[in-house]
């Protein structure tokens, strides 16, 4: 199972469980995520594995497991590309 860690120069502010703002101080970039992005980030912050986060996505959004896997993988790769997240 892959493990992920957040970049230590990233600051997070969550707004009422609706949206999360991430500021990467090292890159001077700010990002905002809602919906599935918020669920994935919350899960990763709690230390949940991919399998549990995918279960949450399927349950909350009534999507197929295959779609949830694609969304998770795509989003995590985006977070790695913009230096928010690293593979541990």
Beta-strand residue percentage:
25-35%
Please tell me what the overall shape is. Answer: globular
Runs in which pLDDT lies below 50 for 5 or more consecutive residues are none
Query: Largest beta sheet: what is the strand line-up?
Result: 2-3-4
**Helical content band:** 40-55%
Question: Class by helix and strand content?
Answer: alpha+beta
Describe the largest sheet: 3 strands, antiparallel
SSE order and pairing:
Elements: E1 4-6, E2 10-15, E3 19-24, E4 29-34, H1 35-45, H2 50-61, H3 65-81, E5 85-87
Textual characterization of the structure:
This protein has 88 residues and is an alpha+beta fold. It has helices spanning 35-45, 50-61, 65-81, and strands at residues 4-6, 10-15, 19-24, 29-34, 85-87. A three-stranded antiparallel sheet has the order 2-3-4, with helices on one face. Strand 2 and strand 3 form a beta hairpin. Helix 1 packs antiparallel against helix 2 and helix 2 (50-61) packs across helix 3 (65-81). The model has no long low-confidence stretch (mean pLDDT 95).
Core attributes:
3-stranded antiparallel beta sheet, globular, alpha+beta, 3 helices, two-stranded antiparallel sheet, single chain, 88 residues
């Amino acid at each position: 199972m892959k493990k992920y860690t957040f970049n230590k120069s990233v600051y997070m502010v969550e707004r009422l469980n609706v949206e999360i703002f991430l500021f990467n101080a090292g890159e001077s970039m700010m990002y905002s995520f809602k919906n599935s992005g918020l669920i994935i980030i919350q899960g990763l912050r709690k230390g949940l594995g991919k399998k549990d986060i995918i279960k949450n996505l399927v349950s909350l959004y009534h999507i197929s497991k295959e779609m949830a896997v694609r969304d998770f993988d795509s989003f995590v790769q985006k977070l790695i590309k913009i230096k928010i997240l690293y593979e541990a």
